[in-house]
Amino acid sequence: MKDADITSSNDLNLSLDKKTTKSSRRDFFRKAAAYSISAVAAGSILSPGKLLADGEICADDKMIVEEQPWATSLGYELNKHPYGIPSPYEHNVVRRTTPLLSSAGDMHAAISVTPLQDLNGIITPNGLFFTRTHNGVARIDPNKHRLMIHGMVKNPIVLTVEDIKKYPSESVIHFLECPSNGAPEWKAPQFDSLQFVKGMMSCTEWTGVRLKTILEDVGVDPKALWMLAEGGDGSSMSRTIPVEKVMDDAMIAYAMNGEALREEQGYPIRLLLPGWEANLSVKWLKRLKFGDKPWYAKEETSKYTTLLPTGKAIQHFYPLEVNSIITSPCPEKPWTDLKKGDIVEIEGLAWSGKGTITAVDISFDGGKNWVEAKLKGLVLPKAWTRFSYLYKYEGKELILSSRAVDDTGDVQPTINQEKSVIGVEGVYHRNSICSWYVTPKGEVHNAHMRS
Ligand SMILES: Nc1nc2c(c(=O)[nH]1)N[C@H]1C(S)=C(S)[C@@H](COP(=O)(O)O)O[C@H]1N2
Ligand SMILES: [Mo]
């Protein structure tokens, strides 16, 4: 230990007496010994150190015995990052883009996917929220932004962002998923990665105003059945939404996870249609127009329709169906460090745009036999639900799949069941069962790429 460190520690009145340090370390080792004994009895999640005669552990791991620099020096000052940032050791936990999911490699019309393999619980941190934009990320001055509501209404209005924030607010936890999530898996799977197979989705706590609250002031004509929503970015993204959904749970959101929307998510305001395909949740929202017919905008004719084997297309295809994915293990988080007999937690996410998850099953043999997983933490409608299953690793080849059920009774189909109804021309709303292939060495691959 350097002199300077001792001086500064003394200033803080810390006792660095050698004896005290040693005896507290011994106490810790006793606790660690007790813990590893009970862990061994329950299975073997921990690999225990060697027990010595007096009950202490002779740890093989030098890191527990050696003093590290961060324990013997001052940390950095609190004004270094007025807005907090993750530890630099987490630098790999980022959204990712690929030319395959952008327009001819151009990152203005592209999608960046969420690192599902690195998330915990059901909330996506704002800097990791997946982002889809057709025209880059608009940078909008909130003081100059306006929302116009017009068409078949009694009192057309133009609102500032501050006007919108004066209405009573609500906070709700909902996932948002691009209907193209998993699209390549449909016909020709090409990603050996959880992040690229299912990362076009995230889940956050949104805060904003229920649209129906504002519409009470506007007075929508009872004959208006449709609402056009238009974005203020250069793509003028426009979609038509049934008034029934608008009056049910549509929201104008201005915050996520307690802070203002990120620019990528539509700062200063976006439309949020819980459970429905994310394309309808128009960002940088500028205009809402009420009418008695759908608008048939570009985004609902050339795209976001699904051609069926019959030659007809599904056009008004809104709520996302029940779905799930195993997030641990996955290609990014394999089981290569496990030993036979180790107890390991299988985890994943389940969600449904129609309601609440009621059950998730797991299969180890490609869907012949199923066991029920446990739902853990919050189980909310139209939100991610985390599931878990404790498994004794056997070092065997596995085909790991998950299958979710929601409270409307919908069950995730197999790929073949889905193809028999929808065909292979559509790329949207893929919700069939996903599987990982686990090799005898514990490597994990996208099972759908194997055939
Ligand atoms: N104004 C505007 N809104 C938009 C888009 C856009 O390009 N411009 N992209 C849509 C699409 S296709 C999706 S999947 C979602 C993505 O929302 P996110 O970027 O917040 O994840 O926003 C939708 N809203
Ligand atoms: Mo999308």
Beta strands, count:
26
Bound molecules: the ligand Nc1nc2c(c(=O)[nH]1)N[C@H]1C(S)=C(S)[C@@H](COP(=O)(O)O)O[C@H]1N2, molybdenum atom
Reported CATH architecture of the largest domain: Alpha-Beta Complex
Determine the CATH superfamily of the largest domain: Oxidoreductase, molybdopterin-binding domain
Distance between the termini: 59 Å
How would you sum up this structure, described in words?
With 451 residues, this protein is an alpha+beta fold. The chain has three domains: 69 residues, no CATH class; 206 residues, Alpha-Beta Complex (Sulfite Oxidase, Chain A, domain 2); 125 residues, Immunoglobulin-like (Sandwich), CATH 2.60.40.650. It is 17% helix and 28% strand. It contains nine helices and 26 strands. A five-stranded mixed β-sheet has the order 7-6-15-10-11. Strands 8, 9, 12, 13 and 14 form a five-stranded antiparallel β-sheet that branches. A five-stranded antiparallel β-sheet has the order 21-20-24-25-26, with no helix packed on it. A hairpin with a 2-residue loop joins strand 3 and strand 4. The radius of gyration is 26 Å and the shape is globular. It starts with a helix and ends in a 5-residue tail after the last strand. Bound molecules: ligand MTE and molybdenum atom.
